[in-house]
Every structure is written in C-alpha cells, then in structure tokens.
Write a structure and sequence with these properties.
Elements: E1 5-8, H1 18-40, H2 48-59, E2 64-69, E3 72-78, E4 87-92, E5 95-100, E6 110-112, E7 115-117, E8 127-132, E9 143-147, E10 150-156, H3 158-185
Parallel strand pairs: 1-4
Antiparallel strand pairs: 2-3, 3-10, 4-5, 5-8, 6-7, 9-10
Amino acid sequence: MAKPNIEKVPSSKERALPVFAEFEQVVERIRERAHELFAEHGFGEGRDLEHWYKAEREICWPTAELLEEGKYYISKVALAGFEAKDITVTATPNEVIAKAATTVKKSEPETKGRATIRWSEFRSEDVYRRIEMPGEIDVKSVTADFKNGILTVKAMKADAVTKTASKKKKTKKKTTRKKVRVKASK
C-alpha cells in the first residue's frame, strides 16, 4: 500500500500548520454556499442541514466513514483520481484532516490513449475532509495507507494507550517480584 504524508500535531490548540487556515477558508466557502441554497428555498425551516451537506459535496467534500474497532478509530476517505504523494493527513488529539491536492490543474480536455475526457467527476482540484473523533486519539499511533482510491487512517484511542501502559507496568512489577523471591529462596 502507498503511504501518504502524515503530520502529527500533539495538541488540539496548536493550529500553526497551513492546513488549518486552508481548511477554515474551505469551511467559509461551504457556509456561504449553504446560505445561498437556504435563500433559494425561501429561508424555510427544516432543510438547513440538507443545505449544509449539499454545499459540502459541491465545494470539496469526498465521501467518508468512521469505524470504531476495539481500541482503534479507523476512518476511510474516497479520493479517486489522486495518488498517495498528493495526500497529507493531519492528526490532532480530536480530529483528522485529509487533504488531497494535485500539482497539475486541468483546464482543457485531456486525452488518454485514443479517448478524450470531456468531463469527469474525479477531482482534479484540492479536496479536504475533516473527521472529528468521538474521543481523543493518540497522535503518535496514527497511520495512513492509500489503496484503490481509498485513504485509510488508523488511530489508537488515547484511553487504550493509557490502559496498555498501565498493564505493562503491572506485568513488569509482577516479574520483578518473582525474580526477587527466586533469589531469596536460594
């Protein structure tokens, strides 16, 4: 599997990386588009979430899912048309942001072999997907793989790391006590 770039940010308060400012600009564009959709429908109640989701899909939101499997959170993001080198994953204790950006922007129809691409829904512009975690994650444990157009990000739950560390300490104490008892009986 190809490996995307991973940026690990140990604190949710550290927002110095450019991806955070870029993402805020994207959210503002989504907010503006959602308001336009809301206005088109006469500012009626009950469809605001529908308008928000539609605006996200229009602007740059690839489809995604979040799984909880034992002591891990696993997120998957569909990024058809990108390569692993185009993808950066930024992880904080509370979120994962996937950014896919191509270095070449296509403005004219592209020819592939004998065919000319007239239109395509495979993204050629930058896309972002932010996934808020239901609980804190251990940023050091975050891994990412990219295969068949799907980015898979795996992160251990922070409380699972704490439990694992405390189990190791208990096991170490027990084996140390056993060694002491063996020496005393000789």
